[in-house]
Amino acid sequence: MEMRVIKDALGASVIEGENRLNTVVEYVYASDLMSDVLAFGRSNSVLLTGLATQQAVISAHMAEFKGIVFVRGKKPKDGSCKFARDSHMVLLCADMDMYEACIRVESAARQTDPAAGTKLAEHKAEEMLLSNELFIEGSDFANAGMVSTEVKSILKKIGLDPRLIRRVAISTYEGEMNVVMHAERAKVKLSVTPRHIEIVIDDEGKGIPDVELAMQEGFTTATEEMRAMGFGSGMGLPNIKKNSDEMEIKSEVGKGTRLEMRFFI
User: How much of the chain is in helix, strand and coil states, percent to nearest 5?
Assistant: First the structure.
């Protein structure tokens, strides 16, 4: 279904992407919890949310969503529009609540012939070797997600399988948000060989007292401020484990945490 059909069904206004309303989406995902979007959302989806922040746009981008409908008349007032423009996403605003929006989109889908999905091409570079270092500052919520966006951009330029890039991007973003929320700073090292991609996030911070407990779904130490941004459901580390082929965590209380993620090409 085209974004144009969704716009018309909801009587929505266009915030960003007027020239991309012919973008085809295959699924609709409704949530205000960005951790769930990253954990359960599917590629080529449109996100319905009442969370009108840049983090919602970045989360949707990491999950390979094509657009967002902000419900309840909400419009982002931060850098969301520019990020969406640079990422070729469509942003819409609808006055109705999320439940009604979902009903209307489903009704429109039943009346529309689903567009044929495009098969994602798999690309594997015969010869490649890349190493790059990036840095994350703790508590810098304004720029949270920029490192993950850069990693995703680098991997796209190499020409890797989009499905692989999506897993790497989501895992890196979850790791980056953990640093922003819980550490002082971190160095991120991206390494690409003909056989695998490796992301290592070395942070300086309070560390994790009980790694096994932190790996359990639903366990969180997030503050109310973090929850208001759509994070802190306790899905971060479990989601990284789900999306990576290999994952290792080493942490020392009072010093920091080293997170290693590997993805086979």
Answer: 40, 25, 35
Q: Give the count of alpha carbons within 13 A of 177, CB side only.
A: 31
CA 219, 222, 223, 225: dihedral to nearest 10 degrees? -130
Residue ranges in the chain whose pLDDT is less than 50: 114-128
- In this structure, the strands spanning 256-264 and 246-252 are antiparallel
CA gap 206, 219 in Å, rounded: 17
The residues spanned by each domain of the chain are: 3-110, 130-264
pLDDT tens-digit map of 56-113: 999 999 999 999 999 999 999 888 999 999 999 999 999 999 989 998 998 888 776 5
Q: Domain 130-264 belongs to what topology?
A: Heat Shock Protein 90 (3.30.565)
- Rounded CA-CA distance 5/137 in Å is 41
Cα–chain-centroid distance for residue 233? 15
Structural contact between residues 177 and 231, judged by C-beta atoms closer than 8 angstroms:
yes
Q: What residues contact 118, with CB distance under 8 A and at least 6 apart? A: none
Put simply, whether the predicted model's pTM sits higher than 0.70 gets the answer: no
Using left for φ > 0, alpha for ψ between -120 and 50, and beta otherwise, residue 230 falls in left
In CATH terms, the fold of domain 3-110 is 3.40.1390
